[in-house]
Amino acid sequence: MPETPSPRWRQRPESSTWGDFGPDDALGRINLLTPAKVAEGLAEVLQGRAFALGLPLDLPGGSSLNANRLPPVQRPTLRQGHAGANVTMEPLSPGSSDVLSDDLVVLHNQYSTQWDAFAHVGSMFDADGDGVPEPVYYNGFRAGTEVLGPTDPADCGIPGPEQGTTSDLGPVGIGTMAAHPIQGRAVMIDLAHHLGTQHRVVGFEEIRTVLEADRVEVRPGDIVTLHTGFAEKVRQMAGDPDAAVLHHYGAVLDGRDQALLDWITESGIAAIAADNYAVEFYPATPAPGPASILPLHEHCLFKLGVPLGELWYLSELAAALRAAGRTAFLLTAPPLNLPGASGSPLNPIATL
Fold it and tell me: Are 196 and 230 in contact, with CB atoms under 8 Å apart?
């Protein structure tokens, strides 16, 4: 434990990084994306081939995969009372030859390709050391103190015309991560190639087997990507997802596997991004309470400060890496700089 504890906590979770990067740190292992780590990533660029890893933001489509997250709503803005699509400007600005379009989007930040911020998953934990757990997030940031949000359902969901922003998740929101360039060396763990796309829950032994088979070198500060084929299946469904198929498609990590959690801790990786929904099996297999139903999220977001990416499109990249006999690449993956949000869409870029 650090010699000078944070003013927000007297004890930290076992195996956590709380305080390791400073008493007020809200970046976690993103701190490991140093200039040297960016240079490591740049050293992996041998061909100059770039791959966009983001799904279209209107995929998966519908809300059958997650009833709490809805597809984007895209509408024209109003321009001087006129519909803001294909506006012939001459009546509004005589002599003008312009035709203009402007629009707006109502967007659920974690609907499609996304980063989870540390504010996405916290835990009931006795940070005060008084025997009473309280709702806290990474590095002891407190719900209701630094991490603010409404309790009235009327202040949640899609807003009406008179409503505005009602939450600010503070330093553990995605804006903190966005202010630090997310770029560096990344590696591919190709589960789909080795295990197929049958639904299975995998732990460290399966991960170790794939690492050894493909000679994947995982270094401290790397971003690990997991290819399961899930996002490719989503793309094939073209906005009409079959939840019965997708909920039983491809590999998912076993968040209850302590060996897997220990590997994430000991490897020193900076982040994990998968092409599936939730990265891990959800809800996790039952365990004596109190226990997280998202134990890998709890371990990464709450304890270690390791961001999680979901629904990244990795199939073309995985095929290109395998054809080239490689597993490492440069990853550039900034979230939107949206202060206080629990996550963000993005369109990551891999460069070989």
Answer: no
Residue pLDDT, tens place only, 171-205: 999 999 999 999 999 999 999 999 999 999 999 99
Tell me if residue 259 falls in helix, strand or coil. helix
Determine phi and psi for 191, rounding to 5 degrees: -65, -35
Chain centre to alpha carbon of residue 147: 19
Nearest to 55 by CA among 197, 297, 232: 232
Burial class (CB in 10 A: 0-12, 13-18, 19+), 167: middle
pLDDT attached to residue 3: 42
- Cα(277)–Cα(247) distance, rounded to whole angstroms? 9
Distance, in Å, from the CA atom of 351 to the CA atom of 333, rounded to the nearest integer, reads 11
Question: Would you state the pLDDT for residue 162?
Answer: 76
Q: Distance between CA atoms of 324 and 311, rounded to whole angstroms?
A: 24
- What residue has token string 């650090």? 2
